[in-house]
Every structure is written in structure tokens, then in C-alpha cells.
Amino acid sequence: AQRVTQPEKLLSVFKGAPVELKCNYSYSGSPELFWYVQYSRQRLQLLLRHISRESIKGFTADLNKGETSFHLKKPFAQEEDSAMYYCALSEYGNKLVFGAGTILRVKS
Amino acid sequence: GAGVSQTPSNKVTEKGKYVELRCDPISGHTALYWYRQSLGQGPEFLIYFQGTGAADDSGLPNDRFFAVRPEGSVSTLKIQRTERGDSAVYLCASSLMGDTGELFFGEGSRLTVL
Questions:
Q1: Do A96 and B100 touch (CB under 8 A)?
Q2: Residue B102 contacts A where some CB pair is shorter than 8 Å
Q3: Deepest of A8, A26, A85, B76, by most Cβ within 10 A of its Cβ?
Q4: CA distance A108 to chain B (A)
């Protein structure tokens, strides 16, 4: 079965520092990968997907099939980036498998 | 409202009771999903509807869980003979078609089984 692993429960960085939220997956085929974000008191929402290859709010994520990773990166963290981040995988259709999530805390 | 609406937002019940959780998706979204999120975990897939039919119910944990979407819009998740382990946040999401890419989530229904 496919799995998504986010090894860090909490990542704490200072404002302006680079951010990397780790995500590793196990899946034998060609997965579709996503990052979802939940800001305080808001609902879970899509941040970005790997097929779009776009930068959202300064975040990027590159799919590395060799390392089976999809790490989320941002060069300069901002306080408003503080949130819970979930990496998710879809092997086909409509069933997303989520990781356990990483809390990002950006300190001023 | 424009977003996915879930009711109730909070439900406390006793072990063995029957519970219904409702989801009102975004108008025009044909796909509807139920997920369950336990403390410290990511959302876990339960069931997916395309229109009125359950296209994939492989995530339902056992036969105490059942979901319907009779008119292809509102969905109800039904849990019989609740157990303490059923305590979780139940999330509903919808999408325009079957494209998983962007799911629009509701705020969830927090179920506590005493």
C-alpha cells in the first residue's frame, strides 16, 4: 500500500530563514503528489500539486522519483506561513493518502 | 454559502448510540469525499461519491459505517453502535468532477464518543 511519511511533527524557523518540509512516499507507479495547508482556524486547502510545477506563496516542491521525495521549500519564511502542512499522494482517481502533517512555526 | 458546509460542528454521544453527520458540498461539484482525522494524524480516506453512487467505499472501517448521497448533492455519513475509537474529526470535501487535484474541504464535524 502507498504511504506518505512526514518525518517532522514540528519545524520551527526564524522569519527570513529557509524552510524545507520533508515528504517521502512509497508507491511503485507514477504518483500524483500534493501539498495541502491548514492555517489556524481555517479549513484544509490545496497549496500546490507537482504536475502544476508552479510556485504558490513562494513555496515550491519538486518530485524526486529516485529518492521518492516531494519536499516543500521556501527560501525566506514569513510569519504568515505558520500552519499545518500535509503532503498527500494519489495513485489514481480520487483517493488521497495523507501524511501525518508537519507544523511549521515561523518565529519573529 | 460558497464553501463546503458540515453539520454538526461538534457532536458528543455515548457509546452504542447512532450518529449522522451531514455534508453540503459546493454547488455543482459532482464528486464528494469523506475523510476521518484522528488526533495527530492526517486525514484518512473513507468513501468517495461521484453523483449519487459510491464509487469507492474501500476506506470505510467496518459495516457500522455507511454513507448516502441520494440526490447527488448533500451526503450523510451514518455511524451505528458508536465506539470510543470512532472519536475523530470527520471531514467532507468536494471537487468539480473526479479530479483529485483540488479538494475543497469543510470545517469538519468533531465526534466524541464517551
A1: yes
A2: yes
A3: A85
A4: 26
Nearest to A31 by CA among A84, A96, A83: A96
Contact call for residues B92 and B6 (beta carbons, < 8 A): yes
Strand positions, DSSP E, chain A? 3-5, 10-14, 19-21, 24-26, 32-38, 45-49, 60-61, 72-74, 83-90, 97-98, 102-107
Give the distance from residue A56's alpha carbon to the nearest chain B alpha carbon, in angstroms: 14
pLDDT in tens, chain B (114 residues): 579 999 999 999 999 999 999 999 999 999 999 999 999 999 999 999 999 998 899 999 999 999 999 999 999 999 999 999 999 999 999 998 766 668 999 999 999 999
Whether residue A100 contacts residue A9, with contact meaning beta carbons closer than 8 Å, is answered with: yes
